From TrEMBL:
CDD domains: ALAD_PBGS. Homooctamer. Zn(2+) binds at C116, C118, C126. Its EC number is 4.2.1.24. The gene is hemB. Keywords: Heme biosynthesis, Lyase, Magnesium, Metal-binding, Porphyrin biosynthesis, Zinc. Pathway: Porphyrin-containing compound metabolism; protoporphyrin-IX biosynthesis; coproporphyrinogen-III from 5-aminolevulinate: step 1/4. It holds the Pfam family ALAD. It comes from Polaribacter marinus. This is Delta-aminolevulinic acid dehydratase. It is an enzyme of class 4 (lyase).
C-alpha cells in the first residue's frame, strides 16, 4: 500500500519535504501617507492599518525596518484635488515628500510608489474625464509627468495601477528619455474591477464620484484576457508583472508564472485583509493561521512578491518560528 502519510508523521519530516515556504523577503507593505500634520488615523474597515502624516510615520517605519520587511508601497493622499490630479506631478507633493523622507531616514527600505490619479482627482477616477469616461491617451501624458516627478524625488520603483492601455510603454520611454533608464516598473498587468477593493477606498479617499471603473479595469470573468494584458505589459518593458486581487485570482497568478520569465507579484487587497480580520474578531476563525495559509496559497500559486497589509503581522509570526 502506498503510504504518503509516512512523510507527515513528524514536524521534522514535514519541514524537510515542504514544497512552498513564505518568507519576510516576499513582502511589500503598503503605506497611506496623508498631507498635513499630526495625522495618525486608523482605517475602520482595515483594523490595524492607519493613515499617517509624515511627522507621525517614523514609529511605523521603525517597526517595518526592525521586522526586516524589504519594501514599502506608498499611496499619497493630498490636501488638494482637481479634475486632472495635478498634485501627482507636483515636485513638492505629498508623494514626493514621502519618497525623500524615507530615502533619507530609512535608506535600507526599497521604496515603490503607486502611479495613479484616483486619490488626487476630484471625481475619483484614474485619469482625465471626457464624455463621462477616462480618456486613455490624454491620461498617458499626465502619467509621464507623474513618474518623472517620482523619479526625480528618488523612488526605487514605480507601479502604475490605472490600467490605461499603453501605460508601460509611455512610462518606459519617458524614464529612458530623462536619464532614468535603470528605474524598474512593476506593472499592474492584470487588475480586475473587483468588489474586494472596498476598504481601500476608505483608506485612500478614492471612491469614484460617479459610475465605476469597469471600462478600464478587467472583467472578473476573463482569464484569457489577463494573459493578453500581461503580454502587452511584458512587451512594453515591464520588469515585474502583478495580479490584483490575489486570493480570488490564484489561477491567474499561476498562468503568469507559467508563461513569463519575469518576477510575478500579487496584491493581497484590502477586502481580503478585512474579511480575515472581521471573522477573527468574531472568533469564527483562527486569524493567524488563516493569514499564513492565505499568504502560502499566493506563494504556492507562483507569486514571487506579495503586497500585503499583513506584512508586519506575518513577519512577527515568521520570526517566532
Amino acid at each position: 500500500m502506498f503510504r504518503t502519510r509516512r512523510l507527515r508523521k513528524h514536524e521534522g519530516i514535514r519541514r524537510l519535504v515542504r514544497e512552498t515556504k513564505v518568507s519576510v523577503d516576499d513582502f511589500v507593505y503598503p503605506l497611506f501617507i496623508e498631507e498635513g500634520e499630526n495625522i495618525e488615523t486608523e482605517i475602520v474597515s482595515m483594523p490595524g492599518i492607519k493613515r499617517f502624516s509624515l511627522d507621525r510615520i517614523s514609529k511605523e517605519l521603525d517597526e517595518v525596518v526592525s521586522l526586516n520587511i524589504p519594501a514599502v508601497l506608498l499611496f499619497g493622499i493630498p490636501s488638494h484635488k482637481d479634475d486632472e490630479g495635478t498634485e501627482t506631478w507636483n515636485d513638492n507633493g505629498i508623494m514626493q515628500q514621502a519618497i525623500r523622507f524615507i530615502k533619507k531616514n530609512y535608506p535600507s527600505l526599497y521604496v515603490i510608489t503607486d502611479v495613479c490619479f484616483c486619490e488626487y482627482t476630484s471625481h475619483g477616477h484614474c485619469g482625465i474625464i471626457h464624455d463621462n469616461d477616462v480618456d486613455n491617451d490624454a491620461t498617458l501624458v499626465n502619467i509621464a509627468k507623474q513618474v518623472i516627478s517620482h523619479a526625480k524625488a528618488g523612488v526605487d520603483m514605480v507601479a502604475p495601477s490605472g490600467m490605461m492601455d499603453g501605460t508601460i510603454d509611455m512610462i518606459r520611454q519617458s524614464l529612458d528619455n530623462t536619464g532614468f533608464v535603470n528605474l524598474p516598473i512593476m506593472a499592474y498587468a492584470v487588475k480586475y474591477a473587483s468588489a474586494f477593493y472596498g476598504p481601500f477606498r476608505d483608506a485612500a479617499d478614492s471612491a469614484p464620484s460617479f459610475g465605476d471603473r469597469r471600462t478600464y479595469q478587467m472583467d472578473p470573468a476573463n482569464r484569457d484576457e489577463g494573459m493578453r494584458e500581461a503580454t502587452f505589459d511584458d512587451q512594453e518593458g515591464a520588469d515585474i508583472l502583478m495580479v490584483k486581487p490575489a486570493l480570488s485570482y490564484l489561477d491567474i497568478i499561476r498562468d503568469l508564472k507559467n508563461s513569463f520569465d519575469r518576477p510575478i507579484a500579487c496584491y493581497n487587497v484590502s477586502g481580503e485583509y478585512a474579511m480575515v480580520k472581521a471573522a477573527a474578531e468574531k472568533g469564527w476563525i483562527d486569524g493567524e493561521r488563516v493569514m499564513m495559509e492565505s499568504l502560502l496559497s499566493m506563494k504556492r500559486a507562483g507569486a514571487d512578491i506579495i503586497i500585503t497589509y499583513f506584512a508586519k503581522e506575518a513577519a512577527k509570526v515568521l520570526l517566532k518560528k
